[in-house]
Amino acid sequence: MNSAAVPDHPWLLPGSLVPARAPRRTPRDWFVDGMLFLLALLWVAVAHDDAISRDPEFALNIGPDWLIGADLLAGLLATGALWLRRRWPVGLAVATAPLTFFSVTAGAALLIVIFTVLVHRPLRVGLALVAWNAVTSLPYIAIRPDPAMPLWAAMAWTVLFLGIVVAWALFVRARRQLVLSLRDRAERAEAEQQLRLDQARHLERGRIAREMHDVLAHRISLLSLHAGALEFRPDAPPEEVARAAGVIRASAHTALQDLREVIGVLRAEEGSEATPERPQPTLGDVPALVAESREAGVRVSVVDEVTEPAGVPAAIGRSAYRIVQEGLTNARKHAPGAVVTVRLAGGPGDGLAVEISNPWPVGGPATAIPGTGTGLVGVAERVSLAGGRLGHGRDADGDFRLTAWLPWAVSS
């Protein structure tokens, strides 16, 4: 992976790639860097003032006189270099490491650099710097001994300050890692939620398209039936020709509308909040479906034995409508002229039974109207999803029979 592809971030945790160009400081970064710079500069002023005051009670032990100017210069350079700590924290720590042998005024700046490395770079690098500072405290004490403090006490103070810096840095490091982890988890959860919504949208569109396919196949079969009647009866009375032409025109118009809806569903843009129009037939629409087939010349007999038709659940009623629609479409395709019997029976608790039967055509099924061959597959899927059963084929009397049972729970 190219390191330049890593997003700029002012705080790079261990394991992150360093970006090819320096990240820009945010206003908060400028404020923090400014405060740390002023704090380190204040320590330079205090330590240098103590060094030149030579107060026997309060002055720091400065060693040889030539160290006063060298120490001041080292402190100022280390403090000014703090502005580079975000981009090159390890390099800055290595460059200022020799100052730990003798400098008092650079102490605050050196602790800030160690803190930065501990927070933003691999932990082993930061701990190595801490160990270096602990080891160099021995030469420091030898060069600048404190008569009022024994060696072990000076070492204890050094270890204490380094321990405070390490503990604070590890706390900040852990908190930043936790925040980044929670942010990443939230982003993943949001992406997964969006993916689930997209999948649900695609599944819904596919379901609507399948329903519209059933409707469209029904319309096209009506068109074919009427067109065939006009083809075989060219001498029909003008009234019958006009009526058939009117049915063809109305069916073609409706088929075009259905086709537009299917195309609109399949071409719907991602993220669109508009709900596509869809057919929502119920069991109460079966008589209109039968009347439409009768107008097309199909002889249909209906036996309705449903005890509470008004109480049929919408989903069950819609499935029953689609089963009847598929049965009538198949009868028109494969057994033209045959009498089709539609039987509906059942009630709450017993389930809803749907049966469409027609005599087997003489000479085998007709294939004048082409089909996709997936109508019964779609009906089987619909019945299975509803928790019902489906059967189809020739019965003992030789008739073709399409039967389905759909669960109908008793309403509480």
From TrEMBL:
Does this UniProt record's set of keywords contain Phosphoprotein? yes
What positions belong to coiled-coil segments?
none
Q: Which residues cross the membrane?
A: 30-46, 66-84, 91-119, 125-143, 150-171
InterPro entries the UniProt entry points to: HATPase_C_sf, Sensor_HK_TwoCompSys, Sig_transdc_His_kin_sub3_dim/P
Swiss-Prot/TrEMBL catalytic activity: ATP + protein L-histidine = ADP + protein N-phospho-L-histidine
Q: Which UniProt keywords apply?
A: ATP-binding, Kinase, Membrane, Nucleotide-binding, Phosphoprotein, Transferase, Transmembrane, Transmembrane helix, Two-component regulatory system
Any one GO CC term of this protein is: membrane
Q: What is its EC number?
A: 2.7.13.3
Q: Give an example GO molecular function.
A: protein dimerization activity
For this protein, the record's Gene3D superfamilies field holds: 1.20.5.1930, Histidine kinase-like ATPase, C-terminal domain (3.30.565.10)
Listed Pfam families: HisKA_3 (PF07730)
The UniProt record lists the Signal transduction histidine kinase subgroup 3 dimerisation and phosphoacceptor domain at: 204-269
Q: What class of enzyme is it?
A: transferase
Q: What's the protein name?
A: histidine kinase
Q: Which organism is it from?
A: Micromonospora humi
